[in-house]
Amino acid sequence: MTYHIEVDAVRGLLAERDSVGRRDFEVAEAAIAACKRMIDECLNALQSPGMSAEALFDHYLLLGDAPYIVSPSGRVTFSPWDYARQRSVAHCS
Predict the structure, then answer these.
(1) Beta bridge partners of 8
(2) Which of 31, 56, 67, 74 could form a disulfide bond with 25, CB atoms 3.0-4.6 angstroms apart?
(3) Are residues 24 and 10 in contact, defined by beta-carbon separation less than 8 angstroms?
(4) How many whole angstroms separate alpha carbon 49 and alpha carbon 78?
(5) Looking at the 3D structure of the chain, how many domains does it have?
(6) How confident is the model over 23-75, as pLDDT tens digits?
(7) What is the DSSP string of 41-77?
(8) Kind and range of the H or E run holding 36
(9) What residue numbers bound the domain in which 32 lies?
(10) What pTM was estimated for this model as a whole?
């Protein structure tokens, strides 16, 4: 089965860099890992020194791209917003 990454781009921050490379994966875990890399790169680009996790997450919601995964059987369970919220805390601690 093929898992394909699509991106809901608010501002196209990652689209300019095309950081994902491959957008089709044979296993769901590889597609999820690629989505996580995209979100981490986006958070790195949005983060400013001294920024709080809440502010970083708010910036992500306003400016970040939200990757999601589709397969022939439907969407794969992965929330870019939940992951970005968790990673915002890690980025700012």
Answers:
(1) 66
(2) 31
(3) no
(4) 29
(5) 1
(6) 899 999 999 999 999 999 999 999 999 999 999 999 999 888 889 898 888 76
(7) HHHHHH--TT--HHHHHHHHHHH-EEEEEEETTEE-S
(8) helix 28-46
(9) 3-92
(10) 0.83
